[in-house]
Amino acid sequence: MERGTENRTRIRWTVVTGVLLACCLLYDRVDVVGVVLSALTLVVTAFGVWTTWRASAAMDDGAAARRLSKAVVDAGSMSSRVLGGDRVVADVTYRFRPCAHARGAALPLRPAGRLDGLVADYQVLRPRRLVVTGQPGAGKSVLARSFAAELNKVRADGDPVPVLIALGDWEREESFRDWVVRHLVRDYGRSRKRARQLVDAGLVLPVIDGLDEMDRAEVPLAESRAQGALDALSNYQESLEPAPLVLTCRTDLYDVLEASGRPMLDTARVEIDPVSAEAAARFLSRRAGAAYRQAAWAPILDELRTHPQGMLARSLSTPWRLVLVATAYEQANDPSELLSCTTREEVGDVLLGHFIPSSIRAVAETRSRYAPEDVHAWLGTLARGLHTRSGGRTDLALPELARSPGAAWARRLYAFLVGVCAIVPALILLSGLGGDPVIWGMAAVLVVVGSVGWLHLRPGGINLWRRADFALPPWGSPLWSVGMRLACSGRGRWAVCVSALWPILIMWRSVAPSRLGGVEDWTLAVTMLFTPLLLVVMVTACHLGSATTGPSGWSRAGVFFALLFMWPATVQVFLSRSMSLGAGPDFFCLAAFGSLYLALCGPMAMYACWLLINCRRLPFRLSRFLEWSRAAGLIRVTGAAYQFRHREFQEWLTRNSLPARPTPTVHPPTRTTTP
């Protein structure tokens, strides 16, 4: 009954809005009637948008949690190159470690001891607070991702949604709850109100990665951000009970933090075991590269089996190093060169020297290829930028690049553009009709609107968008058809019907005869053909979250909004050229619409300025390159931020600005004949 009443109400508002729009277009020759109808149309449209927003705001906690869970699943997909591009995975085990204090969580009676059983072990914990520790490269980050994905699959209604969040950007001044809310908005496209609702209802399980990546080595423990974060996590509660969470950290750092006298209580601790030499040899022997090049891999496998405690076995005792070996020597190079290395660091340098060329070679057959030297130089520039401006943090969020301390010239260029676009339209108006009070008022409005763009230069910026999830998928992606189906079903149908009336009626006004209120201007009709396409893109994108489209969708949305704002200006320039009105109206239209774009989409414009300033050191289509690097296994994605594949890889790029060695000759794999 309520559903039918709601549909009838929407139909009535749709009809009323359409009638008013038609009247505005057909009877604008009567000034008073046109003004009244325009005002009524604005009121009706605003009321329709408000009712739709209120309907979506009435969503209960369970439905909001289900939507968040879907967004987390969409954002949690990993490239196959993260696991080495093969179905074979390393055999990794873990064990529960006793706590160094008396307040630990109740452990399962029979722990699974294998990574595929970690979700079941976690669900038995009381309270559900878990710390996962391991050596560098032990697979903590990959485990956190797979844990969030597996727990989402078995999550029941009413259980909290596991959300993977990198801890690198947390500061002491921000409460932990506010930090989680901020990441739900930025990384998973939730509105701030909805994110706060989920956190307060206890429906968010933070899976926190990167406690060991928050500080430089020389920072004292008492003053470290890691100790402050551990204190904030200890105080993270639901009512009087400890709130559930999962945390990853390096073993040595967490041992120090636990012994500092301020540990995190009511938790269980899992230690990831090193990969044994036999497990490493079994993993490498089952890879496709070893199967096709048995003679080349035989010395390495023999060394691992013969000396299980040797230097090479210790150097390859983590899943990260094993994937490095598999990638470096899968299709080319001689793995026996590792036998001449004398330290773990030397083994790492040799493997990382092959990592970029080998990763490029692995995806060259299916994707556009970049030169290894360019990839190394571009990734090195990004790594050094992270090291310089943020103390070695790992998050590379595109919207924040122009706000970094080293982007002063990008902000100056943006401020100059805002000033030009804010002042030029006003000067053009005043130069022609400066004595008219109406013209002075219009000029003042243009200056005020243009000046809003300067507010984006503040540290916190301004938020003129209610939703944080407007992003565009790649062109040709199947997500476009998904977005269209979502837009044409449920509550979206009403918005589509009302929004579609605008371009249809404008087109009718352009081609209709004068007795029906038209102007019979076919030239204007042709120029307006692009408008329905822009509408389709906007309606589709509004139904796809940033978690679905990934961090690169934000930059594509910036290009779309620039096109959306500059298309009317282009139409006006085209018409003024056809009427020989001179250059004044052209500059006025371009500057006025540009000023509006800078006011509404300042962060996107600042990012474009940052790309222009750094165009000689980085590719201008940076997001496309980062998406390619993600497919190649060089970059990973956490929410709306890019990260280097591993901290060791990022630090190696910071130290090595040029390729470590020339690209080796590719040797085609040779099959070993079976007698």
Give a description of the structure:
The model is unreliable at 1-7, 25-38 and 662-675 (pLDDT under 50). The protein has a 6-stranded mixed beta sheet with strand order 1-8-2-7-4-3, sandwiched between helices. The chain has a two-stranded antiparallel ribbon with strand order 5-6. Helices cover 57% and strands 7% of the residues. The protein contains 28 helices and 10 strands. Among the domains are: 83-272, 3-Layer(aba) Sandwich (Rossmann fold); 280-369, no CATH class. The termini are far apart. With 675 residues, it is α/β, with parallel strands linked by helices.
In short:
57% of the residues lie in helices and 7% in strands. The protein is α/β, with parallel strands linked by helices. Among the domains are: 83-272, 3-Layer(aba) Sandwich (Rossmann fold); 280-369, no CATH class.
- Could you list the spans in which at least 5 consecutive residues all have pLDDT below 50? 1-7, 25-38, 662-675
**Rg, Å, rounded:** 29 Å
Q: Roughly what percent helix?
A: 55-70%
Q: What is the makeup of the main sheet?
A: 6 strands, mixed
Molecular shape: globular
What's the count of strands? 10
How many DSSP H or I helices? Answer: 28
CATH architecture of the domain at 83-272: 3-Layer(aba) Sandwich
The CATH class of the domain at 83-272: Alpha Beta
Structure classification: alpha/beta
β-strand percent reads 5-15%
CATH topology of the domain at 83-272: Rossmann fold
Mean pLDDT: 76
